[in-house]
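Narrative of accomplishments. A recurring question from our advisory board has been how the design workflow behaves on a single, concrete structure rather than in aggregate. To address it, we present the structure tokens for one chain from the evaluation set, followed by the sequence designed for it. No filtering or post-editing was applied between the two.
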């Protein structure tokens, strides 16, 4: 019967920006709704924001995309090259700046994504230039008033003793990223990141669970429900969903405002939600092997809304347990290093701001 209907109907329009899927290709729940249950690998070299010189160009040529992908392959080869065994050690007493991991630890993908068969210049599509809208004047003032330690100024000294800041007093004064508690850019709106890009979806008639690989964060969307009271807040907000045809529309509010400057030294990823704002996401089936993810953000700190879209291809790979918090030896090293820098600062007779000042 389904095959007969499929021949008659031919295509079922998903309502997701012109994306269509054959009806018999879409996994469905017993109630007939698309079933998004599965694991998705959203790695992509397509950037979140468009390069300024591209203007309002939405697509890349196949040749341009091939060049980006070739450059990435070379970057991986260069990053995996062995370090010179005869390189000299750092100068004794010199400050060693924080350097990144070897490239083997990164996994941003090796291809750019396509929508309707065309490579995209960015995930962001609104504004039309694919760039984040400017901050409001008030938001700019708020960012400028952030404590120095929020912006980190690693000069190899215990500068906080002079300024009165407390960046390394205890684990609780360190930012959420360092504490391995929450990764905003990976969670909502969902975007590609440097590694751990798998998402696991589990769906019933009443709920959609979105498990975020990076930092082991889980979002639960209540379908056909009302928002919880505003006092109920979370780093990733309170999500409710509704069906519009075969598209699941998810609206999220009630974000914890105080979490924003605590994300990653105040330099939050572009598009990370905070405070009194609203995020609308759309999950639409493309076929039985992928879905289209779209988002729109209404943010009081920006002068205009912004949004974008990207495909989510299914994968047979499993999420990697992100046991960062349990094995957070780096944070212990930072706290121990801060105590050493404080000893050196005091021994040098440098000024120390009293707690009462």
């Amino acid at each position: 019967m389904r095959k007969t209907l499929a021949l008659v109907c031919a295509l079922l329009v998903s309502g997701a920006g012109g994306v269509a899927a054959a009806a018999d290709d879409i996994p469905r729940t017993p109630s007939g709704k698309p079933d998004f249950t599965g694991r998705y690998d959203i790695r992509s070299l397509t950037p979140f924001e468009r390069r300024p010189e591209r203007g309002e160009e939405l697509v890349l040529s196949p040749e341009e995309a091939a060049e980006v992908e070739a450059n990435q392959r070379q970057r991986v080869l260069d990053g995996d090259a062995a370090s010179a065994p005869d390189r000299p050690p750092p100068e004794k007493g010199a400050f060693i700046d924080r350097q990144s991991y070897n490239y083997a630890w990164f996994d941003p993908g090796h291809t750019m994504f396509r929508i309707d068969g065309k490579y995209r210049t960015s995930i962001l599509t609104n504004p039309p230039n694919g760039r984040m809208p400017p901050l409001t004047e008030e938001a700019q003032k708020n960012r400028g008033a952030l404590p120095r330690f929020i912006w980190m100024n690693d000069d190899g000294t215990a500068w906080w003793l002079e300024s009165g800041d407390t960046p390394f007093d205890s684990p609780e004064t360190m930012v959420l990223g360092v504490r391995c508690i929450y990764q905003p850019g990976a969670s909502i709106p969902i975007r590609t990141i440097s590694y751990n890009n798998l998402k696991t979806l589990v769906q019933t008639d009443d709920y959609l669970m979105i498990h975020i690989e990076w930092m082991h964060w889980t979002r639960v969307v209540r379908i056909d429900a009302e928002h919880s009271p505003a006092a109920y807040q979370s780093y990733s907000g309170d999500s409710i969903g509704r069906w519009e045809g075969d598209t699941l529309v998810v609206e999220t509010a009630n974000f914890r405002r105080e979490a924003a400057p605590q994300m990653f030294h105040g330099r939050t990823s572009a598009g990370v939600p905070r405070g009194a704002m609203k995020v609308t996401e759309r999950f639409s089936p493309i076929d039985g092997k992928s879905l289209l993810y779209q988002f729109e953000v209404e943010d009081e700190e920006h002068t205009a809304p912004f949004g974008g879209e990207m495909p989510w291809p299914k994968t047979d790979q499993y999420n990697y347990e992100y046991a960062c918090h349990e094995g957070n030896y780096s944070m212990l090293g930072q706290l121990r290093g801060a105590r050493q820098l404080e000893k050196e600062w005091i021994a040098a007779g440098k000024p120390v701001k009293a707690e009462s000042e």
